[in-house]
Design brief:
Layout: E1 6-8, H1 21-31, E2 41-47, H2 50-61, E3 65-69, E4 71-75, E5 78-87, E6 91-94, H3 103-124, E7 137-141, H4 149-160, E8 165-169, H5 175-182, E9 187-189, H6 212-219
Parallel strand pairs: 1-9, 2-3, 2-7, 7-8, 8-9
Antiparallel strand pairs: 4-5, 5-6
C-alpha cells in the first residue's frame, strides 16, 4: 500500500529569483539529500526545461539521470495556457480549462503533441533505452509548476512504469498547483511557493529555451 504523501515546502514566501536552472537545481538538491547515493533512485528531468535542473540534482546526489518527455496541451487561441498534458504510454491529464474546448479541438491538440513527443523521445533515447523504473524511486524534476498538468502526467507515467514511489521536485510553484500535486505525488519537494506567482519564467534571470541538443548532451 502506498504511503501517505510527505511535503517539504521549505522557505518563507518572499520574492526571489534563481540565476538560472543550474542554481535552481542546487537549491532543490539541498532538500533531496536523503536520496544521495541511493541505488534505487532515478532522477528524471521533464523535457526540456527540467533537464538542466535535473542534471544538477543528479550530479549532486550521485544518482542516475534520464529524461521523461511530457508535452503541454495548449489552448488553441492562447497556446501558453495549458488545458492538459500528455506523456508516454498514452497518459493524458486535463485541467479544468479543457471543459471550454470542443472534442475536435482536444483531439487535434493531442494528436499534434503525440507526434512531437514521439520525435523527442526517439532522439533522446537513441543511444539508450528509457531507464527501468520497476521498484525504484522516481525523482521527477521540472523547472517550475504553473498549472501542474505536465507534472501530473509525469507522475502517472512513472507509476505505470512500475515506480515504487514518486517524488516531485520543483524549484518554484504556484501555491494552488503545489497543493494539488501534493495530493498526487508520494512526495512533493518545493523550496519556494510565491504568493504572487504568475509565470515560471519570472523567477529566473536566465530562462532561455533548452534545445534538443542540450538535452542529449546532458544525457551523455
Amino acid at each position: 500500500m502506498r504511503s501517505r504523501p510527505r511535503h517539504r515546502l521549505a522557505g518563507p514566501v518572499v520574492d526571489r529569483t534563481y540565476r538560472d536552472r543550474r542554481e535552481a537545481g542546487a537549491a532543490l538538491a539541498a532538500l533531496l539529500g536523503c536520496h544521495a547515493g541511493s541505488t534505487d533512485v532515478v532522477v528524471l528531468g521533464l523535457a526540456r526545461g527540467g533537464m538542466p535542473v535535473a542534471a544538477e540534482v543528479a550530479g549532486r546526489l550521485g544518482t542516475p539521470l534520464d529524461v521523461l518527455v511530457v508535452r503541454k496541451l495548449g489552448v488553441p487561441w492562447a497556446p501558453e495556457v495549458a488545458f492538459g498534458a500528455i506523456g508516454p504510454d498514452e497518459v493524458v491529464a486535463f485541467t479544468a480549462f479543457a471543459d471550454r474546448l470542443s472534442a475536435d479541438e482536444i483531439d487535434t491538440a493531442v494528436a499534434t503533441e503525440r507526434a512531437e513527443l514521439a520525435r523527442q523521445d526517439a532522439r533522446y533515447h537513441a543511444d539508450h533505452p528509457a531507464t527501468d523504473l520497476s521498484g525504484r524511486i522516481a525523482v521527477l524534476i521540472d523547472d517550475g509548476l504553473a498549472t501542474g498538468a505536465t507534472a501530473r502526467a509525469a507522475v502517472e507515467v512513472a507509476r505505470r512504469r512500475g515506480a515504487e514511489r514518486t517524488v516531485l521536485g520543483v524549484p518554484v510553484a504556484a501555491p494552488g498547483a503545489a497543493d494539488a500535486l501534493a495530493a498526487v505525488a508520494d512526495e512533493l519537494v518545493c523550496p519556494y511557493r510565491p504568493a504572487n506567482f504568475d509565470a515560471v519564467g519570472r523567477f529566473y534571470q536566465d530562462f532561455r529555451q533548452i534545445s534538443d541538443g542540450e538535452v542529449h548532451g546532458l544525457l551523455s
